[in-house]
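Hi R.,

Here's the chain you asked about this morning:
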Amino acid sequence: MSHRCRFAVILALLFALPAAAQVPESPTSVPADPASSPPQIDPNLYWRDAKKLEADAPAIPVFYGQSYEGRLSLDNGTKIGYRKESTFKYVPAPHPVAYFYLDMYEKEMLTFGLWTDSVNGVQVNVTYEKTDRKGNRTWEVEGGDFYAYSNKYRCITTIQAGKTRRYRFEIFPQDIDEVANYKFFILPKPVMAQCDNKGLPPEVAAYFDAPGKPATLALAQSWKDKPFVPTMKAPPVFTPAGTDEARAYAQAKPEALRGFYEALYLDGEHNAVLNFQRLGLAAMEAGAYGEAEWAFDQSLARIEAFYGTTDTAKAARSKWTSEGIKDYKGEPYERVMAYYYRGLLYLREGDYQNARAAFTAGEFQDTLSEAEEFQGDFALMNYLAGWSSYCAGDVGLADEAFTLAERTNPAIRRPTKETTLLVADLGRGPVKFGRGMSGRLLTFVEAEDHGSTEAASVSLGAAKSRQTLPLAEYSNLAFQATTRGGRAFDAILDGKASLQSGMRNTAEVGYLMTQSGVLPLQVAGLLVTLVSGGVGNQVKPDADVRVWDTLPHHVAVGMSTQKPATPVAFTFHGEHSLVQGTPVMQAQAGKCGIAWSRSRSALQAGPGAPGNDTDIVAARTKRQDAMARDTAFRAGLQDPAASIPSSATAP
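And the predicted structure, written out as tokens:
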């Protein structure tokens, strides 16, 4: 074979071989027997064919906070390699390999770690996807990004993306004939690179110690041509150190809610809206409906002061984008849900006029971002406004609201003679995550335990005459979080949404869940991105990832005709759901009744503001105006009549 041909030949990548990726009990790496290796070299293929085959190699999508472990062996993934036969002679041979990929933004940083039991070392090449003018795809090493790891140290490596595009991690033993086990993970946030067996931070060491998901060739093959929606855990709840004053304030509250009240007091105005919302939902679950009404009224008063229709509110929004440290107000979908729960509480009391007003106001919030207005598309809120008018006997307003709901979700059912509304909150809502340069891009991803397939049914009546009704999904919060006026957006810069069909410079991207299924719209392997604006030098420039973590993933609705005293029981179907759900809120007032339950507990989530942290708190203490607002807020809690709206009743 000529010198030219020798380096032009290609391994016929045998990706269809069965995978054997279980990590063996022994941590010792095993040299492979070259004579028994099943893959063979096809000497008739040219180098360009080799590059194409490697470009199409099966790869496992990976995301921040995820960990995988597997075995580098010839039957678990191969690429072209060269075995040394003498000083000047190398022959083509199959080389064990595992591939992972991740879409990254320009200048985005990430930290990955790799453990191996390899004696001779494992190499990781970080490559990017490149397509030439003819449409041929290859993977190129960016700036010499390759790294070596051995069994002597635990190492983490931090890299930065050059441009917005897809990156691939190519993991293989440096000795072509060695079989080795490995664990590969990406930390939730970038940290300083280091190699150490004992001095790693506990949160980093945990990734080395905890088992990862099995990484197999079969798993990589299963992702071929399949869209990837990343998932991650919600940020942990955070509350500043407790004080005697805060504990004294909370002591007089219902026992189940004391932690929520203490967090509310400690966080001040900074997280007031978020803490009121989390408190209100926990109170509904606990059956403390007076507490819930007061908490949501407090939250909504602050939302309307900023996102209302008055000139004062509009002026506040114009100032908001240039403010350095913000008091939490939430994204549109979060604000809508505050009105949703307040409206349910009005339905419980039979106050159908105020219920309709709450649902209508919630739909309006779906149209507002910091600097723009959009067409509303929250079918659930329009439907509930219609139900409220139906129960109040206002046929005209009911028809108008139901028509709006049907435009967004044609699957909804109007009531004819039904008198009881059945509502179920299912799954867990989206998670916010900062990405891009300095973490300034705010992205929305599915929660790790999102429960997008969770379903609910309701049993009515006693055992002998029991009737079971399935509930239908009416709105999906993942969809609502990532759209404006029904259109998916890529980014928001200075409060304005960039409505596009996909992330810039990205070849393949994920998909969004709609209210009725899957929308084949591609959005960068993420759900959506916003650029955080107006971050001053008083605080780190990370995106604001504070999130209402106890919201559902979707809401399902049904109707029935029954007597007021009829027993109602919910049954939830899903891996992470409570089978019987949370305690049912059931009431009958006037013409109509309501029964509501949840598949996840808001009480068990615990008190605090998810996404808040010590750095934000420390930066805020340097702002005199912020401290003054917090002081006034706490004074108002001590004297509720001085701070709550006249329509609300303090518990």
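The longest helix spans residues 289-307.

Let me know if you need anything else.
M.
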